Amino acid sequence: MKQRVFSGIKPTGHLTFGHYSTAGKWPALAEQYDCIYCVVDLHAVTVTLEPQVLRQDTRELYATYLALGLDPEKNILFLQSHVPAHSELSWLLSCHTMFGELSRMTQFKDKSKNNANNINAGLFTYPVLMAADILLYDAKIVPVGEDQKQHVEIARDICLRFNGKFGDVFTVPEPQIAKTGARVMNLLEPEKKMSKTDDNDNATIFIMDERDTIIKKIKRAVTDSDGGVRFDPENKPGVANLMTIYSVATGKTFDEIEKEFDGKGYGIFKPAVAEAVADCLEPVRLKIRGYLDDTARLDAYMRDGAERANAIAVKTLERVRNAMGFYKC
Ligand code: TYM
User: What burial class does residue 170 get, using C-beta atoms within 10 Å of its C-beta: 0-12 exposed, 13-18 middle, 19+ buried?
Assistant: First the structure.
């Protein structure tokens, strides 16, 4: 039997080149693994969202999965809110998750700092729902960017604790972090992660950005006065980030990139990065638009994905209920 892969993305705003860098690698996994990808709309509502915005972002994200090349026949693609077992398992797991370990989550600490007026309980228990997502499907491999590693690790800890108490109920998951592109950085402040919520639009490349916008943003990206194209994240974070972006867009290694631009300045390097990114995102953007224009097809894929995901999830939940001793009649 093939090992199972599970991952997800939150439908909050447009996706960035950082998401592309991580999720762009997912379609190839279907050759080797049994893959499930979720639009984690329940996770999205830890921040205040207008209902019509959530609906729109959810459709756009599902269309993006398809546009990235995730074939809905070879993968299960579904919405988290369409499978009720996620919420139920999340509650059960929360009774096996410690307050202290949730308090140590970096993302919780960062998000509470940035959202001081809305530090809700959902933000705090967010990693438990994420553990439920993963454990419901017996996922062995969870491909994520570097910022989600800690969340997959806590899912693993919760899993081991639960299995220790009730027997081998769940498969123990592990994070899969790509060697290149697991942390694409902000174009203007390359010590910060590229994120969709940055105040300055010029710091972030969005998958939906038009070619001219991408070119303008990359031309403005921060570099340094040294002038050489070398991979040195500590001393040359801006250039290292552009090399990472170029590597994700072209598949070239850092050695190959250094050779390609040896003796050439940023005046040659930056436009090459910009063209490569525009070339790789353009077909994705056009496909997203195409899928968004075909609501009937999008809805049909979502319904089918939900049915297939649900069939797996209810079985796991049944196993959990039995193991924990819930009365059955
Ligand atoms: P989210 O929606 O923030 O991001 C989705 C995926 O994209 C990766 N990513 C990046 N990778 C490289 N560079 C960046 N700048 C960058 N920004 C984002 C993230 O690491 C992630 O892999 N909690 C998760 C969603 C989730 C999930 C799950 C993931 C919910 N349940 C179960 C895996 C398994 C999140 O908020 O991802």
Answer: buried
pLDDT of residue 59: 98
Per-residue model confidence as pLDDT tens digits over 164-187: 999 999 999 999 999 999 999 999
Taking the model in full, what pTM does it have? 0.97
DSSP states of 62-102: HHHHHHTT--TTTEEEEEGGG-THHHHHHHHHHTTS-HHHH
Closest-lying ligand 1 atom to the alpha carbon of residue 43: 30
Residue 198: per-residue pLDDT? 80
**Taking a C-beta distance cutoff of 8 angstroms, is the pair 20, 70 a contact?**
no
Give residue 199's pLDDT.
82
Atom 7, ligand 1: residue with shortest CA distance: 19
Distance, CA 22 to ligand 1 centroid (Å)?
A: 8
- What is the C-alpha to C-alpha distance for residues 167 and 153, in angstroms, rounded to an integer? 20
CA–CA distance, 96 with 161 (Å, rounded to integer): 7
In 3-state terms, the chain is what percent helix, strand and coil (to 5)? 55, 10, 35
Give the residue from 320, 322, 328 showing the smallest Cα distance to 93.
320
Please enumerate in sequence order all residues whose Cβ is within 8 A of that of 310, keeping only pairs 6 or more positions apart, or say none.
82, 83, 85
**Substitution candidate for ligand 1 out of 16, 17, 22 with most atoms within 8 A of CB:** 22
Beta-carbon contacts of residue 219 (< 8 Å; ≥ 6 apart): 270, 271, 274
pLDDT < 50 regions, the chain: none
In angstroms, what is the C-alpha Rg of the chain? 21
Active site residue 236: no
Query: Looking up tokens 């026949």, which residue turns up?
Result: 73
